[in-house]
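for the recovery benchmark. tokens below, seq after
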């Protein structure tokens, strides 16, 4: 018994879709976007320093990043070069590293980044020590006062 015609059990053939299904790719992209949005604020690292507020003029922008020497309370000294990590060093080691850098880059500028709680005398002694070792462009970092 052969059934020909419109049987309720007959299969209807559909044409094949040749389009790519992009829904899974969109899902993956949204998950990656959320991951990057959550982790991006955690990528900025550095030392927290309570800078004094003072109205100052901005430095001229140069193509080379300045070396940053940080002084925390308790006479802890750190050196940061080219947006790298802060490295805890002694004053003598910082001076030697900066002198070596100045040999390759005579226009090297150094910025001092000190807590408000660090005695003024410690900042001046470090600044004078760096200048006596041959570094000519030594400056201080400050924050603009809140208005």
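predicted aa per position
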């Amino acid at each position: 018994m052969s059934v020909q015609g419109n049987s309720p059990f007959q299969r209807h053939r559909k044409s094949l879709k040749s389009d790519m299904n992009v829904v899974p790719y969109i899902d993956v992209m949204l998950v990656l976007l959320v991951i990057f949005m959550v982790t991006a604020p955690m990528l900025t690292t550095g030392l927290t320093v309570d800078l004094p507020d003072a109205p100052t003029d901005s430095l001229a922008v140069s193509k080379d990043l300045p070396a940053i020497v940080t002084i925390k309370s308790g006479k802890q000294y750190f050196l940061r070069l080219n947006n790298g990590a802060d490295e805890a060093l002694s004053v003598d080691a910082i001076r030697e590293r900066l002198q070596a850098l100045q040999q390759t880059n005579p226009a090297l500028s150094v910025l001092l980044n000190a807590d408000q709680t660090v005695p003024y005398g410690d900042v001046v002694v470090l600044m004078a020590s760096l200048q006596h070792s041959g570094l000519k462009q030594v400056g201080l970092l400050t924050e603009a006062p809140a208005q």
